[in-house]
Write a structure and sequence with these properties.
The complex is a heterodimer of chains A (about 500) and B (about 160). Chain A is mainly alpha-helical and about 500 residues long. Chain A contains 21 helices and two strands. Classes of the chains: A mainly alpha (about 500), B mainly alpha (about 160).
């Protein structure tokens, strides 16, 4: 593997790829620091630019956006008190008060340093566990893979904030979308005699349409309902390097613990940076000798939040690369990039494309370094950019989505697919249907059907899914995740009723 | 009288879709002699799951009852007025997609951006016009150049 890593480092170290990583990191930070834009949106916007690139360049650019995006939420969180991304909500708890006390440079510096260390630790986790899980999952046969996909989808659906039924519905709908057009036996399905539907829907315009439209239109609706969106920011920031070194050296355990929490949470399906930063902040507070000071502007809180949300970047790659199952939206899109370049993520990737795997490791490491330099040098500009109004941002992103959808196959039909799924995504979002299970369903649909049929061709009995131990284990875990989710939903409902009763 | 809530509308729409597609799945060729199951199996499983989940959502919604809305119910014209920004933008995007093959990327995109900025930002001050035209004027050719010459992708 070391040979392949050096080979990958050679490719990633070329001026062109380094420039792409830098552009990716800068764009990621900008995307992350604009409230309401999110890391996922930044990745979606950059995705079309990778079409014409070779796999290493495309993946390096995307990894750059990941690394930058997860650290970008810090800027608006500290400077404006508004988290740029959901994964930096807890950064605001201590970052903003520290900035208000006249130390914005210290808050930003601590956040950047914690993000950097978090990313490095998560790369170590990826390098160690990725091949380990991949080599173990080589034993998986079609029954195990089908059951694993079912488990991943039920887990993601179950984590949909009290909307289990809608989450499952969304996952089934996502899988159904992939059945349109010719199947593996060259039989046409659901084409309604329209030749254009024969080739089915491309993943990309479907994903962008569903996610981007609902997100962007949601931002506009928020703007309509909340008129108090006038913000001012003081961009006169200087970074006290010595102080930050002292702060970081006092927080070694917190940094390590938070980074490991981020890596672990990142590797679980359906969680991501938002869950990671809450768990990590909560743990840091519980383990602290002075929990009462959390929320008043102390380094502990910023480190817990930023180290964990940045560590998600590396951790999230583990199931995507090792099992071919993305855990969250950014990873689903990353998997789309790999598929687009003819690479199938999964256990075989470590054997068949070791250089590309090495390039992902190297891009994460280089991206982390570029992120630190960019944040420290350009922080005042990022703070200014975070003030770009949604009214300017939304049309620009919609235009880039349309161009990206067209560029995929030089086909206008894909722009219409984007639009139709945009309307569908918006309507589902309005009906409070979680969209993450739907998008994961779209990404995993083809593979799930392929594996299911392989299993049934090898043994036509459905009972084999239950008689093979690992397959049965995954299905049992799927059932457990549904039961736990039902229990949690009930708790949420009872709590809501109790609160309502208390208010009355 | 039963109210059409979000959940009920979702459940009914999904059940209708599942019903139509189940009927349509009858047109999928049956399995050949060497296939244990045909091409219609997977989508039919999904359609049954979607139908069952929709039914559960509908039943739950009927059992819980309709939540009293926080704001008074809007009439259709009021609803249109309240959502005009989003609806207008959807309409504009549809128009943009339709115009792309007819007038080409540059003209269609310029038209889309200028109109969308005017729609969202407003046109009441000179500053807004400057932002509108500057962003549109810079971005449209920039994206064209990146795709055409940097990435070798022909735009319409």
């Amino acid at each position: 593997m070391a040979d392949f890593f050096l080979q990958a480092l050679g490719q990633v170290g070329s001026p062109m790829v380094l420039a792409l990583i830098t552009i990716g990191v800068l764009f990621g930070i900008i995307g992350g620091c604009i409230p309401g834009f999110t890391v996922t949106m930044a990745i979606l916007v950059v995705f079309p630019f990778t079409f014409a690139m070779d796999p290493v360049s495309g993946v390096s650019l995307m990894v750059g956006v990941f690394v930058g995006g997860y650290s970008g939420g810090l800027v608006s969180g500290v400077m404006l008190g508004i988290p740029g991304t959901p994964s930096s909500i807890t950064t605001v708890y201590d970052g903003y008060p520290m900035a208000q006390k006249g130390e914005p440079g210290r808050a930003l510096g601590i956040g950047v340093a914690a993000s950097f260390i978090g990313t490095l630790i998560s790369v170590a986790v990826l390098v160690f566990f990725g091949p380990l899980i991949a080599s173990y999952s080589m034993k998986f046969r079609p029954w195990e893979i089908t059951s694993l996909i079912v488990f991943a989808l039920t887990l993601v659906a179950g984590l949909s904030n009290g909307a289990l039924l809608k989450g499952l519905l969304a996952a089934a709908l996502g899988l159904l979308i992939t059945t349109v057009g010719y199947d593996r036996n060259s039989n046409l399905r659901f084409d309604f005699d329209l030749p254009i539907l024969g080739s089915g829907f491309e993943i990309l315009p479907v994903m962008i349409g569903i996610f981007a439209f609902s997100q962007l239109m949601g931002n506009l609706e928020k703007l309509r309902d909340d008129k108090s969106d006038i913000r001012e920011v003081n961009t006169d920031v200087s970074i006290p390097y010595r102080q930050i070194l002292v702060d970081m050296s006092r927080q070694k355990i917190n940094t390590l613990r938070s980074s490991l929490i981020g890596s672990l949470v990142g590797a679980l399906p359906g969680t991501g940076g938002t869950v990671a930063n809450f768990i990590s902040y909560d743990q840091a507070k519980k383990m602290s000798r002075h929990p009462e000071r959390f929320g008043t502007g102390i380094p502990d809180g910023i480190i817990a939040s930023e180290a964990s949300n940045s560590a998600v970047a590396g951790g999230a790659f583990v199931p995507t690369l090792a099992l071919g199952i993305p855990g969250d939206l950014p990873m689903a899109i990353m998997m789309g990039v790999l598929i687009l370049h003819g690479i199938t993520p999964g256990p075989l990737m470590f054997e068949q494309n070791p250089v590309l795997v090495g390039a992902i490791y190297a891009s994460l490491l280089i991206g982390a370094v570029v992120m630190v330099i960019s944040q420290l040098l350009l922080v005042r500009w990022f703070a200014k950019i975070s003030l770009i109004p949604q009214q300017v941002l939304v049309p620009v992103v919609l235009m880039l989505c349309a161009v990206g959808a067209f560029a995929l196959n030089n086909n206008l039909f894909d722009v219409w697919v984007l639009f139709i799924f945009g309307i569908l995504g918006y309507l589902l979002w309005k009906a409070e249907v979680p969209l993450t299970p739907l998008i994961l369903g779209v990404v995993l649909g083809d593979n799930m059907e392929r594996q299911l049929f392989r299993a049934l061709e090898l043994d036509s009995s459905w009972l084999t899914f239950l008689t093979r131990p690992l397959s049965a284990l995954f299905l049992a875990l799927a059932v457990v995740s549904l039961i736990v989710s039902l229990y949690q939903n009930r708790k949420i409902r009872l709590h809501a009723l109790a609160t309502k009763g208390g208010d009355a | 009288m039963l109210m059409l809530t979000k959940d009920r509308a979702l459940a009914l729409a999904m059940m209708l879709m599942a019903g139509i597609l189940l009927v349509e799945s009858g047109n999928i060729p049956p399995p050949t002699s060497w296939q244990p199951y045909g091409s219609a199996l997977f989508p039919r499983i999904l359609l049954v799951v979607i139908g069952a989940l929709s039914l559960l959502i509908l039943i739950r919604s009927l059992l819980v009852g309709a939540k009293r809305p926080d704001t008074p119910r809007r009439t259709f014209p009021q609803w249109l007025a309240h959502n005009r920004t989003v609806l207008g933008l959807f309409l504009l995007f549809g128009l943009y997609a339709a115009l792309l093959p007819l007038v080409g990327y540059i003209a269609a995109t310029l038209g889309f951006l200028v109109t969308a900025f005017a729609w969202l930002l407003g046109i009441d001050t000179r500053r807004k016009w400057i932002i509108n035209l500057a962003v549109s004027g810079i971005l449209v050719p920039l994206v064209y150049v990146i795709f055409r010459y940097g990435l070798n992708v022909w735009l319409p």
